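Tutorial handout. Part one gives the primary structure; part two gives the three-dimensional structure as tokens.
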Amino acid sequence: MGKCMNKSRKLISIGMFFALMPISTSVFSQQVGCDFDAGFRAFDFWAGEWDVIDNVTGNHSGTNTIQKMENGCMLMESWVSSRGSTGTSVNYYNPLTKQWRQLWISEGRYSIDIVGNIEDGAMVLEGSIYYFQGSIAKFRGRWSQNDDGSVRQMFEQHDSETDSWNVWADLNYVRTEN
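Part two.
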């Protein structure tokens, strides 16, 4: 009886594989570009070469390059601070969830994983910041285009002890003159 059950299980598994094969083949064979959904363009205002100014101190914070990649399906961020530290993020729109996602990694200090979309004309993403020494906090970012074409980026981190949001960074992105 054991051999019969094992053989039946194998036949069922093989049958399920072939039964699902046309479905998975048709899903993978769909070639849909990123221009079919306007959601892919929602964060384009952030693309470019930027000098970044700290809105609190007025000091130059660094430079940032935001490139549209993969035929406009994602944005790649390359940050260099005025002190020489670096970071990179991948930003992409998921047409199924209708949300943008940013995955950020800095050089050994923390990572950020936030999702969201356009709210009241600004890109608003929320999630978590993961400090590599072992702590996690709620985190959110807001990017809004100013009338002069610059972009304000404001990050806030949640303080669980006071149940309040504190400004983590408030930056103004000004296009570089190339």
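Part three, for discussion. Confidence is low (pLDDT under 50) at residues 15-19. The first strand starts at residue 48 and ends at 54.
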